[in-house]
Amino acid sequence: MTKASTRSYSRYTRQALTLLGMLVRAGRSERKMTAQELASRAGISRDMLYRIEKGDPRCELGAALEVAAIVGVTLFESELAGLQARSRETADKLALLPKAVRKRAIEVKDDF
Length: 112
Fold this sequence. Notes:
Blueprint: H1 11-30, H2 35-42, H3 46-53, H4 61-70, H5 80-96
């Protein structure tokens, strides 16, 4: 039987997730929404919402972003048009970059 591996996260990632959870909780409170109302609107369980609010790194990214959007937490751009423009800019940048990154083979100098 194999032992389940434990994923570790950087302090930055843990702090960012904690901040996102607090922002979601604050947004929900400001809008006077119950956890059940927000979870239902986002199409997730109340347990998943609580995990997002606690900064659990194992939560589904899409669910966390949807909950954040519903309560007005801005992560990238405040308006859809701005998000679309930034997406186009990033797509243009990606078009200029190589499709894949490969490490070069290290040439061994063994002629003594």
